[in-house]
Amino acid sequence: MEKEELKILAQNLANPQGEKGIEIGEMMNATNISMTLETIRTLSIDDGQQILEIGHGNAAHLKSIMSLAKNLRYTGIDISETMHNEAKRLNKEFENQTEFVLYEGKKLPFQDETFDKIFTVNTVYFWENPVEFLNEICMILKDDGTFVLTFGQKEFMEKLPFTEYDFTLYSNSEMEELISKSHFKRMKTSEREEEIKSKTGNETLRRIYTILTIKK
């Protein structure tokens, strides 16, 4: 891909827009689905819990969450109006149990200690002030709640040509240091490997990613 194409891809991975954004959302859901499902498993969701996903994309995975327990309430928050609309369109069957919120990417517009479980997959690269944002997450998580943060490791991510455009990449140690500067007190790190198709072509890549289970 040419430099300009890579820039457009990077922009749409951060904030999908319009028809191209809908395509990118479908591709992201397909390439990230195993990361997302592993993250959801790590949450250990129970009946009646309030779940928040930060950066839900098209939320085609919502069905998997709703099948795990009874009487769940899911809230998805995203900076992309395109993904906000797509998620609502694709998940009409769950509209009585879900809320999709559009926001500017900095302040999380929720009351303190609202959610039992919070998760995010492949969004941390775009956080402007990561420690402040972690503290925002900490405030809206219940005292006995769990936050799961999943990201591709720097060693893998820096091999992808589009990540040089406005992505901030992290190794495990860099991410753990970041979290230690926030109000969160405990974390558990686990690594996964998988084979995925490249976003820029048909070649297969071996992705190494990390799931961090974080508590107050």
From TrEMBL:
Highest taxon in the source lineage: Bacteria
Alphabetical GO biological process terms: methylation
One Pfam family this sequence matches: Methyltransf_11
Record has Methyltransferase as a keyword: yes
Alphabetized SUPFAM superfamilies for the sequence: S-adenosyl-L-methionine-dependent methyltransferases (SSF53335)
GO MF terms, alphabetically ordered: methyltransferase activity
Presence of the UniProt keyword Methyltransferase in the record: yes
Methyltransferase type domain boundaries: 52-149
Gene3D superfamilies (alphabetical): Vaccinia Virus protein VP39
UniProt KW keywords: Methyltransferase, Transferase
Protein name: Class I SAM-dependent methyltransferase
Organism listed in the record: Chryseobacterium candidae
Lineage, broadest ranks: Bacteria, Pseudomonadati, Bacteroidota, Flavobacteriia, Flavobacteriales
